[in-house]
Every structure is written in structure tokens, then in C-alpha cells.
Write a structure and sequence with these properties.
This protein has 5 helices and no strands. Helix content is about 85%, strand content about 0%. By secondary structure, it is mostly helical. Keywords: Membrane, Transmembrane, Transmembrane helix.
């Protein structure tokens, strides 16, 4: 009887080991599949973010060049009451606002941010923050312009000049952040392939 009991216990232990090994294999396969899926998701999302940033970068760069031209025109007309602020803005091609896209960035941050390294997340959040700050600067400038379109005096032009300089600084800072992220993004994607 004792031998039968030992054989039964050994048989039960063997069955438990077989089941445990099966579970470990299934969990390993599941983890591997999840890791592969996460890598594909990260790569696709980072490529989408990269494409959006490149589009925004082109847009911001174009608007920045117009703003620099406007800045120079205003600078050249401080001390002259010949033209109104409206006429100076119009002569430069007008004041523009860049169309900045952050859709993929917001989607990624809200869904699977834990999959990325902190440095990339930090850069993405910094870009979003800089975009909001730039938007506030543009609103402040636009509010001033609408209230002072017909100003000819230096006081209005100088205030516009400084507000525009603040917008230009925001655009340049955003462009620098875009460049840094694009460089780091390429490195990150290569490292995780």
C-alpha cells in the first residue's frame, strides 16, 4: 500500500509540474507577444508624432520667417508716424498663427505613456507646454493689435515690437524643441528595433 501511495503522490507531482510548466510557457508566450505588440505600437506612434512634428515644424518655421520680416519692418518705422500699425502689418504680408498639430502626442500620452523612456515623455510634454505658452503669447499680441490697429505713434509700435519679439522667441524655442525631439526620436527608434 505504501508503494502505491508513493506512486500516486509522484504521479500527482508530475502532473502539477507539467501543468506549471505549461502555464509558464503560456505566460512567457503571452508576455513576448505583448512586448512585440507594445514595440510595434511605440514605433507607429513615434512615427506618427514625428510626422506631425515635421508638419508643425515647417509651419512654425514659415510663420517665424514672416514674423521676423514684420519685426524688421516695425523696427525700421519706430520714430516715424507715417504709417499705422495696421498698414505696417499688412505691408509685411500680415500676422499669422502657425497650425500646430499635437493629436498623436496627446493620444499617446493619455494611453500608453508608460511604455516610453522618461526623456521622450518629458520632451513631448515640454513641446505641449511650449505650444500652450506660444498660444498665450499670440493671443496677447492679437488682443493688443485689434485694440491698436490705427496707432501711428511710437508707443504702440514699441509695445507691438516687444510683444512680437516675445512671440518670435516662443516660435524659436518651439522649433529647437522639435529638432531635439526629432533627433532623439531617431535614436530611440533605432535602439528599440
Amino acid at each position: 500500500m505504501e508503494k502505491k501511495k508513493k506512486k500516486k503522490i509522484i504521479y500527482i507531482l508530475q502532473e502539477i509540474v507539467i501543468v506549471a510548466i505549461g502555464i509558464l510557457i503560456a505566460v512567457s508566450i503571452s508576455n513576448y507577444k505583448e512586448n512585440v505588440d507594445n514595440q510595434k505600437y511605440i514605433e507607429k506612434t513615434l512615427l506618427a508624432i514625428e510626422n506631425e512634428i515635421k508638419l508643425s515644424q515647417t509651419e512654425v518655421d514659415s510663420v517665424l520667417n514672416r514674423h521676423i520680416k514684420l519685426y524688421e519692418i516695425i523696427d525700421n518705422h519706430i520714430g516715424s508716424n507715417e504709417y499705422t500699425l495696421s498698414e505696417l502689418i499688412t505691408s509685411s504680408g500680415g500676422f499669422q498663427v502657425a497650425s500646430i498639430k499635437n493629436v498623436s502626442l496627446r493620444f499617446f500620452i493619455s494611453n500608453k505613456a508608460e511604455l516610453l523612456e522618461f526623456q521622450i515623455i518629458s520632451q513631448l510634454l515640454d513641446i505641449e507646454s511650449q505650444t500652450d505658452i506660444l498660444s498665450d503669447k499670440i493671443k496677447r499680441l492679437a488682443d493688443f493689435v485689434y485694440d491698436n490697429l490705427n496707432e501711428r505713434n511710437d508707443e504702440g509700435k514699441i509695445k507691438f515690437y516687444h510683444l512680437l519679439a516675445d512671440v518670435i522667441d516662443g516660435e524659436q524655442t518651439l522649433l529647437e524643441s522639435y529638432s531635439r525631439l526629432l533627433d532623439d526620436n531617431k535614436i530611440y527608434i533605432k535602439k528599440h528595433k
